[in-house]
Design goal:
single chain, about 575 residues, alpha/beta, 9-stranded mixed β-sheet, 15 helices, 21 strands, about 25% strand, disordered N terminus, binds xanthosine-5'-monophosphate
């Protein structure tokens, strides 16, 4: 089970974040994440003189359920903005919202344990409807005068709920509907004023409500296993909380453009383009807001896929008309990487070199005030718990320190409260080409972490050729959009083969293709044998120095998506 978050994600802000110079801030280049440790939860920064925009929203209090993030996504799918808030956060944590409702998530604790995280009084005093899910429902029972006891049997898996009292929460739902349960405690008596609105065979009180707009449901509406779950969430938002559904890509763009203008004024902004969707949407949004005050820097580190630099330049420079500084730093990166075989050392070398190149370029531009970067909401949520999970760090990923603090830049992070799928919708709204919006993720250190062992120009060319074939076949078979990632890895293993009458002794290429929701977990893709066969044949025939192709059938966990 997940452990509860102790720190609240910062509330909706304008995206202005002065990064500490104390060195306790890890900043991604490559190009993502600013982890602000110094900002107290609940603090809000003002933007210029203007009145901050307050989006209509629902707060999800995160009691540590593995599904909390899913609740937030499901609410947003209903065109309603929402934020994940820690159970310990003060009322000020939601000051940035026009608060319409509160959802108490599930969680691993039991309400009667001493250290159980509770619902803070401000939640009940806020006057907005509250929906408790699983542990959240038990909190309502426990704190409002009912009682919760351990169930004789844990209820886990599918159950059928029967509606037994009309309520707006279940409007339009079938009288009997399948739901997903996962709980060990049950409510033995409801608090005064509550009535049961649904039951299952094992839970006489599978859902409860009072007349003050408080609801508890024992099942999980946020998971796909509850087929009518989206309707429950939609009913809560629209019928119970009375939201207007204003969280749309169009509104987001309009409001964000205004925010960026307010924040930046007539300052100058730089943005590093990586070719990925996050930095592309960031740059496009900032450009929409302030036009030529933005300069984008695109560093070709020599570790990119075939034709990638040309593609990025074509889109941004020629199609979208952005100020783009293109730097071909291939030689610098490759000489820095010479002889480096350790994956973490590769990441560090690439990150440090990137900062050097970027800083040098920026210096030639004179005074610059802001750095725009594509930090996403999952990065923000994760950075809040990073301190607690440092020992679990598997790869350093984006945590390459240094850029904004060294350059004394304020951050513009317009995507700081978006999930990846929302970024794509915003990208479409902004007219970015579909192949850029729907591009599979590509790691900042690029092909360097897909070459096992040291990285050389020749190996990069070999991998680029194999990777090109993989992409070609995957796209040709219409599989690209179904896969989270699909790529080739150049292993450091050589094997014997025969080519014509000749014995060969050449590299093994591994093919990796995974499906995933968010890269936290991933499953190896069941690619059609025909696709696998064509990829293998083509690589062995068309790529010199490769004589064998293997397919990686490891999921994450225990594997990771990348090999390094
Ligand atoms: P793993 O390999 O940890 O990767 O399962 C999860 C996701 O993160 C990407 N990845 C990176 N992205 N810098 C990045 O910007 C990195 O150092 C890095 N390492 C992995 C990976 O491609 C996958 O999408």
């Amino acid at each position: 089970m997940d452990s509860p978050n102790d720190n609240a994600p910062a509330p909706l802000t304008d995206g202005t974040h002065r990064v500490s110079t104390s060195g306790d801030v890890e900043v991604s280049t490559y190009l993502g994440i600013a982890q602000e440790r110094e900002q107290a939860p609940g603090t809000r920064r003002s933007i210029g003189e203007s009145e901050p925009l307050k989006p209509e929203g629902i707060a999800v209090i995160d009691y540590g359920s593995q599904y909390s993030r899913l609740i937030a996504r499901r609410v947003r799918e209903q065109n309603v903005y929402c934020e994940l808030i820690s159970p310990t956060a003060p009322r000020a944590a939601v000051d940035g919202l026009d608060l319409k409702g509160i959802i108490l998530s599930g969680g691993p604790a039991s309400v009667y344990e001493d250290a159980a995280p509770l619902a803070q009084p401000w939640i009940f005093e806020s006057g907005v409807p509250v929906l408790g899910i699983c542990y959240g429902m038990q909190l309502l029972a426990h704190q409002l005068g009912g009682s919760v006891v351990p169930a004789t049997e844990r209820e886990y898996g599918f159950a059928v709920v029967h509606k037994n009292d009309p309520s707006p929460l279940f409007d339009g739902l079938d009288d009997e509907t399948a739901v997903w349960m996962s709980h060990g405690d049950r409510i033995s008596s409801m608090p005064p004023g509550f009535r049961s609105i649904a039951y299952t065979e094992n839970s006489p009180i599978a859902a409860m409500a009072n007349d003050a707009g408080m609801y508890g449901i024992q099942f999980h509406p946020e998971v796909a296993h509850t087929p009518q779950g989206a309707e429950v969430i939609r009913n809560f938002a629209y019928r119970v909380c009375g939201v207007s559904g204003s969280w749309t890509p169009g509104n987001f763009v309009a409001e964000t453009v205004q925010r960026i203008r307010d924040q930046v004024g007539d300052g100058r902004v730089i943005c590093a383009l990586s070719g990925g969707v996050d930095s592309a949407v960031t740059a496009r949004l900032v450009h929409e807001a302030i036009g030529d005050q933005l300069t984008c820097i695109f560093v070709n580190n020599g570790l990119l896929r075939r034709e990638e630099p040309e593609r990025v330049r074509a889109v941004f420079e020629r199609n979208l008309g952005l100020n783009l500084v293109y730097v071909d730093a291939t030689e610098r990166f490759l000489s820095g990487l010479a002889g480096v075989t350790d994956p973490e050392q590769k990441r560090k070398t690439i990150g440090a070199e990137f900062i050097n190149v970027f800083e040098e370029e920026a210096r030639t531009m004179g005074a610059v005030d802001f750095l725009a970067q594509g930090t996403l909401y999952p990065d923000v949520i994760e950075s809040e718990t990073a301190e607690h999970s440092a020992s679990h760090k598997i790869k350093t990923h984006h945590n390459v320190g240094g850029l904004p603090e060294r350059m004394q830049l304020d951050l513009v992070e317009p995507l700081r409260y978006l999930f990846k799928d929302e970024v794509r919708l915003v990208g479409a709204e902004l007219g970015l080409p579909p192949e850029m919006i729907n591009r599979q993720p590509f790691p900042g250190p690029g092909l360097a972490i897909r070459i096992i062992g040291d990285v050389t120009y020749d190996k990069l060319e070999t991998l680029r050729a194999a990777d090109w074939i993989v992409m070609d076949e995957i796209k040709g078979d219409g599989l690209y959009d179904q896969l989270w990632q699909s790529f080739a890895v150049l292993t450091d293993t050589r094997t014997v083969g025969v080519m014509g009458d000749l014995r060969t002794y050449q590299h093994v290429v591994a093919l990796r293709a995974v499906t995933s929701e968010d890269a936290m977990t991933a499953d190896w893709a069941r690619l059609p044998y025909e696709t696998l066969a064509r990829i293998s044949n083509r690589i062995v025939n068309e790529v010199p120095s490769v004589n064998r192709v293997v397919y990686d059938i490891t999921s994450k966990p225990p594997g990771t998506i990348e090999w390094e």
